[in-house]
Amino acid sequence: MKGISIGIAFTDLSTGENYIHSIPNTNRDNQYCMDEISRFINFYDPSEIIFQTKNFKENKISNLPLILNGSILKTIWKLGLPNAFAWIAWTIATFADAIFLGYLGTEALAIIAIIFPFQMLMLMMAAGAIGGGVTSSVGRAIGSKDIKKAEVSCFHSILIALGMASIFTIIFLLYSENIFKFMGATELILIGAIDYAKVFFAFSIFFWLTHILASIIRGLGNTFIPSKAIVIGSFCQIILSYVFTFGINGSFKFGFLGPAIAIVICHIIMMAYLFNYLIFKQKFLRIKFHKFSNFIFLDIMKVGGLGLLNSITIALTVGVMTGYIGNFGANALAGYGIGARLELILTPIIFGIGAALTASVSINFGSKQFARARKIAFTGGIVCFLIIGFIGFFVNLFPHFLYQYFSSNPDVIKYSLKYIFIVTPFYCLFGLGQAIYFSSQGTGKMIKPILVGILRFLCVVILGYFAVFKNLTIDYVLYSVSFGLIITGLGMALCLLGKEWKGM
């Protein structure tokens, strides 16, 4: 066996696909090869193969061979495509909300511009930060074949969702007026924003549980079921938003509150679908009560908590920028809101590929395949750089194709165009940075990516403050946004050179 690299050929009976698990014997160590063969057999032992094959179509655990040994591009494609499709559906639903509100006037658009940063904050926390910590913890447990740890992680994830939802509900029911005043909301916009917040955040528990349950399932290597839930929810949201905004024969008409009510109802539907799958459909993990574990809680929060800090810095950046833009008037604020909402075109790609990267990297880390994990992160970064860069290029060339659906006010359009022309050329670096950020979640080591996020926040806020209070044009405020994207891309790329990617 000395000096010989061993390859174990096997077939995934649930998909019919063939794989080769290679064991390089570079150290000419017989014991090493025997240990690796034993580890492989234990991971895919005959009894487990029979069990998993029976349930692969339900659990999508069949993705494990691909994640651990298959083509990296194919892995990103197979796991990322369902997510991307789902977030496209979500983006369409979000655009639909904005279009419906555009018919109600500039004030309605300005109200949503005030609320939007906090909606995105909660989404980034639930689906990105804490959700990433959940996917990372469950994925690393699955990669090391520690099913018990994966089950305990699931229980603690639900506890965290309940806690975070409670925090958001309390803050926005008690302090929304102070928050929106700080952001520069005028009296009419302030009243509307408070009413919207009371509806949306009072039921944030459904939002949090939906995205945390989705993150648990992604940790199993299954991106199809969460994606299906988001597609169902998005389809329902479009219909219900229209109904609740404009009404039917004078009934169910709630005006600008319509989208908020629709979002709540749709998340109840998605949450019920995901709970049904985890409890009754899949047989791999058991969802049940466990004794509280500090270790598991910290395992989730060391990723999710630091990711939370990153989400907060991003939301604060958007919030502060919204306040800066508010100094230039309601039309500028509405135009900025349209421009920022156009960035939702990026969300399907970033969240789609990002979730696939977190799951793939975490499972490979759990299996101690550190070099493959870094290669996955690098490949995902390049893919996002190219795709997001192309989207930015398209939006810059054909902006009228997008903004015309939101407003006919020439001043609003003028400001939205400024945003597009100044910011979109740097979308490619944003895509690169976010891909590596999501990949870093899979490692469980987030210090350096978080430091990059803090640096971006400080630079954007300081440069924007200088532009506003030196009475410069709005262009200079937007330049600070572009500079922040540059920092994100280059800073995150440098993180790949760290020793944490070697499992140290």
Account of the 3D structure:
This protein has 19 helices and two strands. 51% of the residues are buried.
Describe the structure in brief.
This protein has 504 residues and is mainly alpha-helical. The protein folds into two domains: 6-59, no CATH class; 63-502, no CATH class. It is 78% helix and 3% strand.
Which features does this protein show?
504 residues; mainly alpha; two-stranded antiparallel ribbon; 19 helices
Give start-end ranges of low-pLDDT stretches: 12-18, 44-61
As laid out across the biggest beta sheet, the strand order is 1-2
| SSE sequence, one letter per element | EEHHHHHHHHHHHHHHHHHHH
Radius of gyration: 23 Å
Count of beta strands: 2
Gap between N and C termini: 29 Å
Q: Output the number of helix runs.
A: 19
What is the molecular shape? globular
What number of structural domains do the residues give?
Answer: 2
Oligomer: single chain
What profile does the largest beta sheet have?
Answer: 2 strands, antiparallel
Percent in strands: under 5%
Percentage of residues assigned to helices = over 70%
Structural class: mainly alpha
Arithmetic mean pLDDT: 83
